[in-house]
Structure formats: C-alpha cells, structure tokens
Write the structure tokens for this entry.
Amino acid sequence: MSDDLAIRAEALEALLTERGLVNAEAIDAVVSHFENDLGPLNGAQVVARAWTDPAYRKRLLADGTRAIAELGFEGPQGDKIVVVENTPEVHNLVVCTLCSCYPWPVLGLPPAWYKSPAYRARAVREPRAVLQEFGVELADDVEVRVWDSSAEIRYLVLPARPAGSEDLGIEALRALVSRDAMIGVATVTHPGGGA
Ligand code: FE
C-alpha cells in the first residue's frame, strides 16, 4: 500500500470512529479476517493444488500470476506474482524492504510484523537469525534466498510438502498451509507425519 493510501485509510478510520459510526475493535476484526482467513486460504489452495498436480506446479513456477488466476485469484496488488519453491536445498524468504508490498490476491493483507522496520531490515541482513526467531531451524547447507517484493513483483513461497502427507487429499493439505509458510517464515508440518 502506498503511504498516501495508508494515511487516507487511517484518516477515514479516525473520522468514522470519532463520529461513532464504527469502533476500532470492529475494524481490527475485519483486518484480522483479511489477514488470517480470506487471503491466506486462497494461497493455501494454490499450494495444495501445486502439491497434488505436477502440471499445475510447473505452470505456477513458470508464470505465477497466470496459474493463480486459473483458480480465480487476481486483483489489486497481484499484477505480477512470482512463486518461489522451497526444496531440500533452498529455503525462500519474502520481505519488502521498502514498505509492505505483498501479494494480496493470495495472502490478503500483510501482518503488522511484515511492515515493521525491524523485519524489513533484518530479513535481508540476517535472514537465518530471523528465521530462527520464527522457529524455523535450517541445516547449515540449506541456502536461504531472500526476495524483495516491490510494486512490480510480489513473491509467494511454495513451501515443501511435509513428510507423511502422501495420503492427504487437497482439502486436508490446504488446511496445513499457513500464511507464514507462504511468506517463508514457517515451514509446513503434518502433525501425523513427523517433519
Ligand atoms: Fe512495499
């Protein structure tokens, strides 16, 4: 979101609150819904499809925007989405060092920490330390790639499909995929299946 838009939104919220038309809690609830439910469920559907459909995975990695639109997800802040895949050798982490660019059609609105100056600076400078704080422990030989989102290109991480999930259907797989895993600050685990 541009600073200008953010300021306008804040001004609008302040005005509506002052007039008693809405309260801050109600707005927080709506934002939280977009942050945690609506958006990330779309991304999780993309991930689950890629895990179960090799041809789709190929299309997704070749042209993220188009493959994501196949599932009906498109719109503002999603003009160009590049999907980067986690493998045993590579772990991907997404940041916007400049502001808070984020792929809205698949992840909704960015969480507050994503917009924080600390995350924006440290994700680039010391990605392994940041990942550790989020609870992601990587072996030393795993390469960490940091992707700087911008107004032009926004990134989505395709997490690794967890061990033990071979028998799960697409809906069960989708339920395993968190927003954080698609930013790269978490991995996907299957409670019944070890790693
Ligand atoms: Fe940005």
In short: The chain has a mean pLDDT of 91. The longest helix spans residues 24-52. The two ends are 36 Å apart (CA to CA).
